User: Which sequence fits this backbone?
């Protein structure tokens, strides 16, 4: 009998140890479910967060802006040399309640969309675009008007502008605009882009008004389609700001805005972005 009891105690001890281990394991799982229930309180890793389309530029404590494009962004026609850029950012800063600072104005007078597309391949321009939260852009006026100007005509008086030629150039010039937008987005996937649409500087010239209005409607409409496809581009309408009031808001060259005209554009840009 004693021999059987001696063999029984080790077996019972082993069974007790196994039971204790199972109890501890069950207790551990219970604590796990209480502290971090599956599908409940555990927070996802930041790397698992789904990026928001266009980026949350409005949530930034400070907005970094750059300005690129042609003479309109350079402010040609404004005797004070301000143009629309500085006032746009000042108005936007007030409405957003945060600093909106200009990192640089890289606009070039006389620039056309195809040339801007080339400049975007340069390191300085690429770095500026890549570091911006907001890009202000004007382009297209030279594509449509200067390219369709006949030799010897005065653009200040609408002379030399060939509306039929400008119309024929639309598919090519629109393709250049698309290339610019595509490259900007490739360089900076999240920046907000504000494209200032074209106005009719020849509105008071009755012989040109219908044809130019039709061309600008096509151009600006195409810009809107590009913006809609992108989802983070704003097209700022300006045509109505100068209709029937061009003498009041255009500079002495009868083509670029004067200070008052740029001020109106600035308010429109800030409103579009707010």
Assistant:
């Amino acid at each position: 009998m004693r021999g059987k009891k001696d063999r029984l105690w080790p077996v019972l001890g082993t069974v007790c140890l196994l039971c204790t281990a199972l109890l501890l394991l069950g207790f551990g799982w219970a604590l796990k479910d209480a502290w971090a229930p599956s599908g409940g309180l555990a927070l996802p890793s930041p790397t698992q967060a789904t990026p928001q389309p266009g980026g949350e530029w409005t949530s930034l404590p400070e907005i970094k802006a750059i300005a690129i494009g042609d003479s309109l962004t350079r402010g040609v026609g404004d005797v004070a040399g301000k143009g629309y850029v500085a006032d746009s950012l000042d108005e936007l800063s007030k409405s957003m309640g945060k600093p909106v600072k200009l990192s640089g104005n890289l606009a070039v007078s006389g620039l056309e969309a195809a040339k801007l597309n080339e400049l975007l391949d340069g390191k300085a321009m690429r770095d500026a675009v890549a570091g911006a939260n907001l890009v202000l852009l004007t382009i297209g006026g030279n594509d449509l008007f200067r390219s369709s100007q006949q030799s010897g005509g005065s653009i200040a008086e609408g002379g030399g502008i060939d509306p039929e030629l400008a119309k024929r150039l639309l598919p090519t010039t629109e393709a250049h605009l698309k290339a610019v937008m595509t490259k900007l987005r490739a360089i900076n996937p999240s920046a907000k882009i504000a494209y200032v649409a074209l106005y009719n500087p020849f509105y008071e010239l009755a012989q040109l008004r219908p044809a130019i209005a039709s061309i600008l409607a096509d151009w600006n409409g195409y810009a809107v389609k590009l913006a809609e496809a992108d989802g983070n581009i704003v097209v700022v309408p300006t045509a109505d700001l100068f209709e029937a009031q061009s003498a009041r808001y255009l500079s002495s060259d009868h083509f670029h805005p004067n200070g008052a005209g740029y001020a109106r554009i600035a308010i429109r840009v800030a409103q579009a972005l707010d």
Observations:
- The chain has eleven helices and five strands.
- The chain has one domain: 58-273.
